[in-house]
Amino acid sequence: MLRWTFTIFLAVIVLSAALPWLQKLGLGRLPGDLRFRLFGREFVLPFASTILLSMVALVIGKLF
Which residues cross the membrane (predicted)? Predict the structure, then answer.
């Protein structure tokens, strides 16, 4: 269980660092991604981008 927690924590750090670069590619702005502003903060719920990245990871996993 500790290994999975560490893996998820590491993935969140890597994706957070790569977020500005991924937004330049259009991820986070796909139809199905929700953006809203609440109390002066902007929140992003990237549902479509998550599905797209999961499919890409699945294809890469199947190839290797």
Answer: 44-63
Burial class (CB in 10 A: 0-12, 13-18, 19+), 49: buried
Mean local confidence (pLDDT), 27-38? 86
DSSP string, 19-57: HHHHHHTTTT-STTEEEEEETTEEEEEEHHHHHHHHHHH
Mean pLDDT computed over 20-46:
86
pTM of the model as a whole: 0.65
Tokens 């957070």 identify what position?
A: 16
User: What tokens appear for 27 in the block?
Assistant: 């991820």
